[in-house]
User: Which sequence fits this backbone?
């Protein structure tokens, strides 16, 4: 017996419904490894997008699960731990933020002394590499995840950034 | 090294608990939080928070590299792992050791030694600490002959398991081979380790554990024992010290055995050696060692006056043991109830949500460890512990009375809790008499009223 595409789809569905984060399956020499949310940690293309969604709808699972609160005492459960972005960026629908997909050290250039991946005014595509986040010597590339022109660099080189922290602002039109 | 800034790699009540001691000691705290915990009470208590990832623990609280990076990046000299999450994962202790970060806990080697049941058992035997009669399973035939020798019932356990996971009771020798096959498959899938061992099943036992502190250089003291027999599926619900009705000689023997075991490992930090005490014979057996601070540590603190977190920090900073055994003089009785967001009427199912109103009790001899205030959310990603109510008194009857009154004054709205269940439990004649076995709670749960009745107590 071997795995068909339908089998794999079914297995993915089962994993999604389960409480497990990882599944490794070996059948007749075919090995299938699945990991929930793997994109957020490893590859930057889906990561930037996924992370931004998470930060843009802060603590979605929390507020959904919480039901009606008697008061707004504790807020929405997701106010950024980092300094809040300026009001104009939040209100301007054409400005999007690229947020950090993980906690680590932020680098704007591929190596010390090299020119930065992007500057204010740089045109970026979804898959343009904009930064590196280092976690214990492991370099993770951050991709823009959005199309537009960089309007602001929010973090200086070599500092610790948190998960979900805004790194760049990108103007998507005009 | 004097520790001035500590990263806390945990959440919930234990994060708040560790922050409290750090504050008293003038140590700055950095709290690692997931997106779900950014607005938690501990996040507000900490001097600084860093967001380490999304709510799901595997993407935040369980990421070793991220935790160590967070400590290095925020200038924290040490990491306090709390309990659960990474507290007993050798890779975190290892990475800390490799990068000059102080791990507030035992060495990676000690975590490995007690994390593997077979190794821990071998260490216990070497330390002259009694273990439950049993053997490592090498084949079905060997297991069957061992079971014949030990006598049924026996229990099959996963070497890599713990907290009751991966255990199977076998009453008939004929059922043993199939039980072994199933247990090995399950253990392989759940723990990545299919090794099994088999031991005698103790039909009526008490769970008694001894709190120890070690300086990592061979000096070990104990802070007395705790009785944690009130448990369900190996989840403890009520803990107390001293263990009621234990003969003085048995109590001393337990303390000494725990110290011998920890000494053999040159254990560093706070740890707990767990024993099963046979209610019929009075014999006791080593179960396992927990290489971390435990949920139920406050009862020991109440009785001894020792701040265990402060001692953990002192040991980690190299100050060694600041107490001798003679300095430890427990007085009175302390009992703790774990208040969980779970519905006893629905098989203790977790009940996450938002707390719309909460009143925690105070008063003579009452301590509450919690991270829950009005408006707090109980995210579905983590354990359901809302807080612990600890009552201390000069004797057990006073402590119990204080605890019952404290529970009556406690009010938690917005989620289902086990408060009404606790009220019934503490009023039960068997519990009041003291010395129940580990099956008491299961028997009690079966007699718990139907869902509708229980809901009214909300």
Assistant:
């Amino acid at each position: 017996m071997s795995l068909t595409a339908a089998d794999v789809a079914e297995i993915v569905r089962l994993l999604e419904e389960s409480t497990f984060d990882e599944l490794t399956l070996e059948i007749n020499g075919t090995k299938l490894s699945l990991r929930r949310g793997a994109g957020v940690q490893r590859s930057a293309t889906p990561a930037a997008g996924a992370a931004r969604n998470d930060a843009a709808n802060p603590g979605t699972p929390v507020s959904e699960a919480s039901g009606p609160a008697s008061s707004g005492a504790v807020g929405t459960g997701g106010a950024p731990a980092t300094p809040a972005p300026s009001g104009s960026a939040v209100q301007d629908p054409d400005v999007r933020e690229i947020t950090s997909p993980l906690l680590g050290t932020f680098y704007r250039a591929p190596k010390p002394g090299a020119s930065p991946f992007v500057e204010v005014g740089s045109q970026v595509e979804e898959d343009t590499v904009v930064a590196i986040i280092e976690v214990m010597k492991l370099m993770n590339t951050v991709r823009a995840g959005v199309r537009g022109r960089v309007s602001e660099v929010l973090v200086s080189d070599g500092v610790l950034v948190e998960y979900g922290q805004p790194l760049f602002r990108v103007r998507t039109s005009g | 090294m004097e520790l001035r800034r500590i990263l806390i790699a945990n959440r919930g009540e234990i994060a708040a608990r560790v922050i409290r001691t750090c504050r008293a000691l003038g140590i700055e705290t950095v709290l690692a939080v997931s997106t779900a915990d950014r607005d938690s009470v501990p996040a507000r208590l900490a001097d600084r928070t860093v967001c380490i990832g999304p709510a799901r623990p595997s993407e935040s609280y369980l990421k070793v590299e991220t935790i160590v990076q967070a400590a290095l990046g925020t200038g924290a000299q040490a990491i306090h792992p709390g309990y659960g999450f990474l507290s007993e994962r050798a890779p975190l202790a290892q990475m800390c050791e490799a990068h000059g970060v102080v791990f507030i806990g035992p060495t990676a080697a000690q975590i490995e030694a007690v994390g593997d049941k077979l190794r821990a058992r071998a260490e216990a035997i070497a330390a002259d600490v009694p273990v439950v009669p049993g053997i490592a399973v090498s084949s079905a035939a060997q297991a069957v002959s061992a079971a014949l020798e030990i006598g049924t019932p026996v229990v099959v356990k996963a070497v890599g398991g713990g907290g009751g996971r991966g255990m199977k009771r076998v009453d008939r020798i004929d059922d043993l081979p199939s039980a072994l096959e199933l247990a090995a498959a399950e253990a392989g899938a759940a723990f990545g380790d299919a090794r099994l061992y088999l031991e005698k099943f103790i039909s009526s036992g008490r769970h008694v554990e001894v709190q120890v502190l070690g300086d990592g250089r061979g000096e070990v003291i104990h802070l007395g024992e705790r009785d944690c027999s009130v448990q369900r599926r190996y989840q403890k619900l009520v803990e107390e010290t001293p263990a009621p009705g234990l003969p003085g000689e048995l109590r001393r023997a337990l303390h000494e055995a725990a110290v011998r075991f920890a000494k053999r490992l040159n254990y560093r930090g706070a740890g707990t050696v767990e024993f099963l005490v046979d209610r019929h014979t009075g014999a006791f057996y080593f179960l396992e060692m927990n290489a971390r601070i435990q949920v139920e540590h406050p009862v020991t603190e109440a009785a001894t006056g020792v701040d265990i977190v402060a001692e953990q920090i002192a040991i980690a900073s190299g100050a060694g043991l600041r107490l001798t055994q003679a300095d430890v003089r427990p007085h009175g009785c302390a009992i703790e109830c774990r208040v969980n967001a779970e519905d006893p009427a629905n098989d203790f199912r977790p009940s996450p949500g938002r707390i719309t109103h909460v009143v925690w009790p105070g008063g003579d001899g009452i301590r509450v460890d919690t991270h829950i205030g009005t408006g707090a959310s109980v995210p579905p990603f983590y354990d359901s512990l809302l807080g612990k109510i600890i009552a201390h008194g000069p004797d057990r009857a006073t402590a119990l009375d204080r605890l019952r009154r404290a529970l009556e004054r406690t009010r938690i709205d917005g989620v289902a809790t086990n408060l009404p269940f606790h009220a019934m439990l503490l009023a039960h004649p068997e519990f009041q008499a003291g010395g129940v076995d580990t099956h008491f709670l299961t028997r009690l749960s079966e007699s718990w009223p139907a869902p509708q009745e229980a809901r009214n107590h909300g």
Observations:
- The first strand of chain B starts at residue 5 and ends at 8.
- Residues 68 and 96 of chain B are 7 Å apart (CA to CA).
- Confidence is low (pLDDT under 50) at residues 450-458 of chain B.
